[in-house]
Amino acid sequence: MDSTPSPSSSSPFDLVSSALGRYIPRGGAAAAAGPADARGGRPTRRGVPDDPAAGRQDQILGVVNLDRALRITRCNLEAPVFAGLDAVAGTPFVDLLPPGDVPTVTRRLRQVLETGEAHVARIQRLRRGDGSELVVSMSILPAAARQEGLTVSLIAMATRLHLYAAETAIGTSLDIGETAQSLAESLLAWGDVAAVDLDFAVWTGEGVTEQTQGRIRLRRAALVPDRAWPEGYVTPGDDLPRDASRLLAQAVRRDDAPQAIVIPDREAVERVLGSPQVMRALVPGDRSAGVACIPLVLDSAAPVVLLGVAEVWRRADRPFRDSELFDLQELVARTAHHVDLARQHQREHTQVLALQRRLLPRTGGDTVEIASVYQPATPDSAGVGGDWVNSFPLPDGRTALVVGDVVGHGLGAAATMGQLSMEARALLSAGLAPDEVLEHLDETVTLLDDSESGLAAGYSALGSTCCIVLYDPVSHRVALASAGHLPPVLVHPDGHAGLLAVRPHPGLGAEFALREPFDVHTFDAPPGSLLALYTDGLVEDPAVSIDEGIGRLADAVATVHPWDALQQAARRVVSTLAPARQRDDVTLLLARMIGYRKGDTATWRLPARYDAPARARERVSALLRQWGAGNYTRDNVLLLVSELVTNAVRFATGPITVRLIRSGHGLLCEVGDTGNGRPRMGRGGLFDDGGRGLHVVHKLTTRWGVRWTDTGKVVWAEVAR
């Protein structure tokens, strides 16, 4: 190859070539550390400049001169990065190109020859003699005199492309562990071992402030390569020894400003760490090695907050140069904000997941067996969604099953989910019918979406769905109301599975013109029936239609045997249907209907006449003797029934229904009539004749209340046995 000509020449080739001998990338902002200070045992801050020989290793600029026939006339590609390029004077320049690129590059070269306008910064591949390729940024410059041909400058892009690719890869996940692992894998290009240690508060998603830095606790989040490590060496998931955390944090926070440091060899490492335990925990082997420690800082905060430390280890005979330390700092600085984003996502994910867990059913009571499975979306998705499922016994003996899906993900969806779930439970416990509860939820969603608390806050719950199921264990009837939710699956005792016919609905919070009344569907669910409520994350699959997904769920639920443990069966169904990478929450509730035995309930219909209380006492007394109730319980129940029937005769019309239910924890008395007045317990005076009946009911029972029916109301009261 030709030697570099005198810099006095004015041709583009000469100007570029003259710079090659002194071109060295700029050093790091924080200088590499020299040997440890013998007095303090701490790394020094002396700059370690790149020597000329080392600089040539980092040289990335080359130049080639072409004649008008596009043949090489001279070149300067002496940097090691260009080794293997057969740029011989007299050979066509296109011989350096992959065959597929020859037409395009030739056209560009001739265009610059004809127009005299430079073509700059084209990303181009060049072929080496061994068949490998080198990626460069190629600029085509016209010569000073047009007859002299062209000058092609080449900038090797390996380091730049690696930094760009690393930043792109690290930013693809919101999982804190995957983010740290991607960073460690990218750092391995500069050493033999790379590790990322994060503050424990960052790892768990807690808030990180300057005040927490004095008690920093580092946990190893990532380590590459994946291999067997010496005993005692810290591996991912382990906390660093307390002294190691303190030393690393102090080392990179010298002079109150996080800076990268280099400890050049094992002897210096021993002086800095000082403790054999810390040496075993942090030094990856017995060979002499140096380490570069680069702080991960959140520089958007004031003052700067330390998120953790990245370490790159390599053999002592390959010391870190300034340019390499600069590249390491640049990579860590570019990606530190991804670590903080993953921390914030982890914090939000943990908070929402805790709220979700609080809303899961605890028990199904004596008349319904409940099993539920909730799997949050995978951590690198948009965040935990607003799916919820709940089941709870109502005071009147029925059981409520509720499933809902709030639009969106994150804290906004979780807050709305919690509000709707608690509101639904309160309204159902107050005795409202399922369609009435949905009307209230619809109004709540609309109010939450006003200009102040909804869209202005960047979140809207319009279009959320909900399904409410009420199971009466005496009549074995189920009442269902749905607001745009997917239809439940009912498996009959004979094993036949089918979807419940639910009228389509636009969901909660629809525009006024699109609002439709909420229908109540009733159907029989004999003992042994199995009901499945779910959210769309369980049945949605990009490869199949939603109808096919629901059909697969029905087939899976139909395989649940009546004697199977219900919780295990629910997990089996979810594992069969749920995708491996969940982009949405997966929720399933299975309810096996048990109901009351026929001998545990009795119902009588009485005319609303003056003798109704006496007739009710007579029939209830006979039943209590049959059930073997004690005298104290029998007296309380007879007095309670007498008061409730008397009130029904006095204030209502039509027939009176008396129902007595024996449950595991007491007796439930219900008196229904056709009146629409709500009984209220007032503060009657000492000599008042009226209003004493409800005070008697209140004293005799553990709880009592009212629920409304299509024909009137039912007053219920529970008596402990």
Q: Mean pLDDT, nearest integer?
A: 79
Q: What's the helix count?
A: 17
Largest sheet: 5 strands, antiparallel
What is the overall silhouette? Answer: elongated
Topology:
Blueprint: H1 12-20, H2 52-58, E1 61-66, E2 72-76, H3 102-115, E3 119-127, E4 133-142, E5 150-156, H4 158-170, H5 176-187, E6 193-199, H6 200-203, E7 218-224, H7 242-252, E8 261-263, H8 266-273, H9 276-282, E9 289-298, E10 305-315, H10 322-359, E11 368-375, E12 385-393, E13 399-409, H11 411-429, H12 434-448, E14 465-472, E15 477-483, E16 489-491, E17 497-499, E18 521-524, E19 530-534, H13 546-558, H14 566-577, E20 586-593, E21 601-606, H15 612-627, H16 631-651, E22 656-662, E23 666-673, H17 693-700, E24 703-708, E25 713-720
Antiparallel strand pairs: 1-2, 1-5, 3-4, 4-5, 6-7, 6-10, 8-9, 9-10, 11-20, 12-13, 13-14, 14-15, 15-18, 16-17, 16-19, 19-20, 21-22, 22-23, 23-25, 24-25
Helix pairs in contact: 4-5, 4-10, 5-10, 10-11, 11-12, 13-14, 15-16, 16-17
